[in-house]
Amino acid sequence: MSTTGCNGCRNAEPFPIDFTMAFHPIVDLTAGEVWGYEALVRGTGGQGAFEVLRQVNEDNRYTFDQACRVKAIELAGSKLTANSKAMLSINFLPNAVYEPSACIRSSLAAAARAKFDPRRLMFEFTENEEMTDTAHVEHIVAEYKRMGFTTALDDFGAGYAGLNLLAKFQPDLIKIDMEIIRGVDTSAVRRAIVRGLLSIGRDLDINVIAEGVETHGELQALREAGVKLFQGYYFAKPEIERFQLEEEIPQLRTAA
After folding, report:
1. Residue 90: its pLDDT value, please?
2. Are 175 and 156 in contact (CB under 8 A)?
3. 40 Cβ partners below 8 Å, 6+ apart?
């Protein structure tokens, strides 16, 4: 799988294996609907994300990043219902983006081909990838927001930075890391951390998603804290090249 370069972006070696995407719903329990879907890389031969991502290196990082975006958008355009307003969340590699306004061209072209509204695109970057140039990442986030995309900081509370990273650039959303979510219903400390993050979000006009929700107890504790957006196996597991709809997620009807 390969892609062409663009002005301001680095040409790279083709990615060594084929891959596709699985999609994991993000639900809004207040509205009782699927708010969006996160695109997660999978091998076409059934390989998990780790087996694909371990093939990423400095020579093919840009190619992989661009191809992931295009694949996710094309699948969303062809498989989501025409009246869907759900967001499409794509993980991007900050170290693969050399000039955001140039490197977004293939994504916009894919959206045009697929008749997918680019205003429904959300780009996630993770704390777990070491950022060699935080000023450059700040520039990427600012440019993406200027162009009308939603931005999200994934795995918040884990990885190389936390509040320091949030202070440098404010995304539209933060996704609380699942290690904080795990067992939140039985931990007063974890509940206090979640409440603190929600307070920060309100002050900075940043929405919060709780990811990795697996039990009813966790869900109830998070709802009581004020969380409205959720993602996790409690609701659904990611499915390859398939988007689960509201009627396929019974928890949307029973959570209230």
Report:
1. 95
2. yes
3. 21, 22, 23, 24, 49, 91, 238
CA separation for the pair 138, 76 (Å, rounded): 28
Residue 164, both tokens? 């320091």
Q: Is the pLDDT of residue 182 over 70?
A: yes
Residues 6+ apart with CB under 8 A from 135: none
Distance CA 192, CA 173 (A): 19
d(CA 203, CA 226) in angstroms, rounded, equals 14
For residues 194 and 203, what is the distance between their CA atoms, to the nearest angstrom? Answer: 14
Q: How far apart are CA 72 and CA 36, in angstroms?
A: 13
d(CA 59, CA 98): 14
In this prediction, residue 5 has a pLDDT band, given cuts at 50, 70 and 90, of very low
